[in-house]
Input
Amino acid sequence: MSIMQLPPENPHEASFLLSVAEARALPRFPHKEVVFFGASNVGKSSLINAFCRRKNLAKTSKTPGRTQLLNFFWLPQKVILVDAPGYGFANIPDSVRQNWQDLLLDYLDDRQGKLQAYLLMDSRRWIRDHDMEIMKLLQIHNIPYVLVFTKLDKLSKIDQQDLQNRLQQQVASACPALVTSAKTKEGLEGLQKSILAWGSL
Output
């Protein structure tokens, strides 16, 4: 694995570093990392852009499965953010899907102790079977994770309260959980605090 020197030219601004398609090209960094997982079209790229305050830092698309690489970004919090391929209903060839899986397994194996995962889910959908599969994978690799519910602005006020109640009753004792909206910026401060806390450990 190659070693990348950090920080970039402007360490006070979020910036794209590189994309990786295979395990042998995985870089190593002197900083901790956070990886964003989520089903296709869950709003992962939009949340990254809103969090980083960069309109087109992560490429957004209405086409499921557009992200087909591990994309690495520098955060001014002195943490590396990794945008992982979407999973779920993306219409992609089996060979490409298998390559993604192999790359992710190698990445998780190599990052134990230096990585925290953020598992994004659409607030309207709750936790689905493919989300549970990712949770089990992270548990097997001893990777701590935070649940992040996106698109909160798509819910009515009543449904937002119902979501909060459900989180308290079913999730709070198991792992941290955040509710966010890339559109209204709600929850982004909590996300930043979580990432800062991880980076300072």
Notes: Strands lie at 2-3, 15-20, 27-28, 33-38, 70-75, 79-83, 115-122, 145-150, 177-179. The longest helix spans residues 94-110.
